[in-house]
Predict the 3D structure of the following.
Amino acid sequence: MSDQSTRVLLGRINGLYGIQGWVKIFSYTSPVTNILNYSPWQLCIDGQWQIIPVCESKAHGKGIIARFESIDDRNKAARLLETNIAITRSQLPQPAEEEYYWIDLIGLTVINREGVTLGKVDHLLPTGSNDVLVLQGERERLIPFLLKQVVLDVDLAQGVLHVDWDPDF
């Protein structure tokens, strides 16, 4: 397994905070403060993933701020802007039965009851009531991720997701 397949993006550095090297974090976790539960973070700097220890981090307003070891002023922190933050896949807890991480669903081939391949999962969208699979194939499809109603089976080992979905939708 490559490093890329074992790495999970949790957010990115999207701003500066103050003059002592603090940065603003855009978290992909839900809720956004869950990013603070993981350590160590890996940062992609100049195309290379590196572990840079977090000295301090906290919720701030509706977002997250953090300060990294060896980053003690605004100029050093500015070099980290738009840097991705990741952890290794092994740092995530095992999902409960019939729960899935989005990262595990991306790339699965989606096949309906009639055996028609509808495409591959490109990404997912949160909608509030349920998540939506966005498929890429001969055309883009949006399929609600509703277990046992629309999504009949998720076979991660085979890379297949079976659905009850009309190919004309």
About this structure: The chain has two domains: 3-91, 102-163. The radius of gyration is 19 Å. The first strand starts at residue 7 and ends at 17.
